[in-house]
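Hello,

I think I submitted the adenosine-5'-diphosphate job twice by accident. Can you confirm which output corresponds to this input? Input:
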Amino acid sequence: MSSLIEAAVTKGNINKLLIANRGEIAVRIIRAARDLGIVTVQVHSEADTDSRAVQMADEAVNIGPPQAAKSYLDVSAILKAAAETGADAVHPGYGFLAENADFADAVAAAGLVFVGPSGDTIRLMGDKAAARSEAKKAGVPTVPGSDGVIDDMDVAADLAAQIGFPVMIKAAAGGGGRGIRIARDTAEFRSLAPQASSEASAAFGDGGIYIEKVIERARHIEVQVLGDGKNVVHFFDRECSLQRRRQKVWEEAPSAALSDEVRDELCRSAVALAKAVNYRGAGTIEYLYDDKSGDFYFIEMNTRIQVEHPVSEMICGTDLVAQMIAIAGGAALQSTQDQIRRSGHAIEVRLNAEDPANNFMPFPGVVGELLTPDGPGVRFDHMLYPGYAIPPFYDSLLGKLIVWADDREAALRRLKRALGELRIEGLPTTAPLFEALLESDDLRCNEVHTRWLESWLEENPELIAQQGGKAL
Ligand code: ADP
Ligand code: ADP
Ligand code: MG
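Support: Only one job matched these inputs. Its output is below.
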């Protein structure tokens, strides 16, 4: 961390940071803040009193009952905690209020620094339909689909037929793999679209939907960017093609599927788009990549830190969370694009409290014996400790196991070694899934796409059942 960043933060606007999130990302943010010499305030629900983040933070404030709507999504309770503790900045993490433009505005209106882009930028890029238009304007290829949200079902049905079925119906305010439907023909489209809209309205408070052609057998590749409002740099790409229910479970950096030319083009397009909106903060531009044609298509921008940011940190040797805090505090970007180099290969696997042998049913429980992997090239970002009772109210992510090595082959071997060292007793986790996946030739050769994992699971039920039977 350059002393310039430290100076900008500690002598600037941020001395005390409130973390409006929980779980492993709260732990991650506390670490970055402490490395910068910033005091931390952890807000938490009644269900999270015993959490690792609450134990680690300098101060903790109970903001309400377990249900997220009454605690982690309660803007006034969070702002009250900030006022009471004298915090001068708020980090939203990911999920919860991280991409809520009104929250960013409310934080600013209370005289606090929001660690992220302005409410207006979130409004523009967090609305997936509006972001598509911005991408088009910036010359970034998008998936064929509707211009903006659908306001006339007849026009939309005609357009869907014109694009060609199957089409995806997406909620403009959706995220986390939710709010997506696939229609195979006009009749299905006509019945699913209004349903999708009312569901989006209930789930996201916004019924706006748009359509996209389904790109079959594509890879999910994304670019990490960081902007200070004037300049934007990228930290290369990540491949996140291994997904279940459109949620990522295994991520790598860089993608082993890109040639240097395509990588360069992709990263340049991401920077161009972020520059076009004077982006300030950490962000990710997501694409689908068709490795047969070499075409890539913008799908969305996430205006926040992402779950899988560590793989980029590992290949670039940087702390993206510290950098986003510094930028929020008024620092300029600390590196030019030329100074950002990548080396080696990193892989992250998401350890969820789920039972792979039982259709990945969420399985909150009490952590028993815990042995964590260590040694060269291994990083474990998690929220576990022996005796910790995992609350059943939130998502099932326990942590992320991240490995780095000189090349992909060595990273795969290191992942196997690290998973072998990991022991979490008391509850099933997704670790056996990754041990089984390491045996797959397709995965070893990176012959994958966004539906690959789902078909592999269907074809190999016994593998998971066997691995799941191993007491981990
Ligand atoms: P990433 O894009 O960082 O990989 P995910 O898409 O997995 O992240 O989402 C990160 C977290 O945020 C998950 O817990 C997910 O459920 C949640 N999330 C993301 N967007 C939304 C949203 N619009 N509404 C509710 N939860 C969301
Ligand atoms: P979210 O906001 O929930 O993250 P995304 O738009 O990023 O939604 O899409 C999530 C995932 O859904 C992608 O990673 C990909 O696997 C799949 N997907 C999204 N759009 C398309 C598309 N047009 N064609 C095929 N798959 C898609
Ligand atoms: Mg996405």
